[in-house]
Write a structure and sequence with these properties.
Elements lengths: L1 E2 L10 E5 L2 E6 L3 H8 L12 E7 L5 E9 L3 E6 L4 H12 L5 E4 L4 E7 L13 E3 L7 E6 L3 H10 L3 E2 L2 H11 L33 H10 L4 E7 L10 E4 L2 E15 L3 E9 L7 E4 L2 E9 L5
Parallel strand pairs: 1-14, 2-11
Antiparallel strand pairs: 2-8, 3-6, 3-7, 4-5, 5-6, 8-10, 9-10, 12-15, 12-17, 13-14, 14-15, 16-17
Length: about 300
């Protein structure tokens, strides 16, 4: 369980260099190609702009998600490192039928997450691009690996303090931002996992779009991403809470657990749609594991 050491002061910049994977998609058909692969609108994305985007299976289940960045002559797709292999394999397979090429350029880029009200004061290094705010991330800077020294110098000039990974994880949980492989695992529905912003509501003609449209029109998803407070003792990730009146029905599953300096032991979890905010849950067979369902972000 992650334990954070940062305090309540959030005004000063803070940062963390995160591991990231970056795919480059180039070629004359790159825009039309990605338009048919991703849930996000690609055609009107101007150079330098970025959007959250996902890729789905034909059954509407999540394959991967990341930040799509438009450049003058290519797109960059910044992903969680664990998503890179599947994304590269899928995109490369379909790009073979169009004038598009996909390559893994991960070693050529660095990603710095920047936190705090003064994040905008951090200037971009040569070739860098600022990704928009998402969750607890006030900004992210994607830059060429060759510009890491320049970026580090700029962060120091702006008075930014380096965060530990545990600090950053606690902030992510407080904000309720899903992470690939945890809240947003392959095979889950993106609508269950807090990725609604990755789906352009009026867009059609992409892999899995028919399922997305049916869910929007006719159905509700069975789960939602929610916050969990642990009032008695910390509860580890992977803990499952079941309906005491129907033991086969999963009510909630803890996906991430941290100790927040502001809120104490808290976590994120996927909670059944019939379980309301404010519900108290207790693990069957281990009553010491208790959780209170709360809305996101934590407050």
């Amino acid at each position: 369980m992650a334990r954070s050491s940062f305090g309540d002061e959030r005004a000063a910049p803070a940062h963390l260099f995160r591991p990231t994977a970056v795919l480059e998609i180039a070629g004359d058909d790159r825009t039309a190609f990605l338009q048919g692969q991703l849930t996000q609108e690609v055609r009107n994305l101007p150079p330098g702009a970025s959007r959250l985007a996902a890729a789905l299976t034909p059954q509407g289940k999540l394959a991967y998600f990341g930040r799509l960045v438009a450049r003058e002559d290519r797109f960059l797709l910044a992903l969680h490192p664990d998503a890179a292999a599947a994304a590269l394999s899928t995109l490369s397979r379909f790009a073979a039928f169009q004038k598009a090429a996909v390559r893994d350029a991960s070693t050529q880029y660095v990603l710095a997450s920047v936190y705090g009200a003064r994040a905008a004061e951090v200037l971009l290094p040569s070739g860098g691009v600022r990704l928009p705010r998402w969750g607890e991330l006030d900004a992210e800077i994607l830059a060429p690996a060759s510009a890491r020294g320049e970026l580090s110098t700029e962060l120091e000039r702006a008075g930014s303090a380096a965060l530990t990974a545990d600090d950053a994880e606690a902030r992510r949980v407080e904000a309720g931002r899903p992470e690939f492989g945890k809240e947003a695992a392959p095979g889950s529905l993106p609508q269950e996992t807090g990725l609604d912003a990755a789906i352009a509501p009026e867009k059609g003609c992409y892999v899995g779009q028919e399922v997305v449209a049916r869910l929007r029109t006719y159905a509700r998803v069975n789960r939602r991403l929610a916050g969990l407070r642990f009032p008695e003792a910390a509860v580890p990730a992977g803990t499952t809470f079941f309906n005491p009146d129907k033991p086969s029905q999963e009510w909630a599953r803890v996906t991430t657990a941290v100790v927040s300096p502001r809120f104490g032991p808290i976590g994120l979890g996927l909670v059944h749609r019939d379980v309301p905010d404010g519900a108290a849950l207790r693990a069957v067979g281990d009553p010491s594991r208790a959780a209170l369902v709360v809305p996101l972000p934590f407050a």
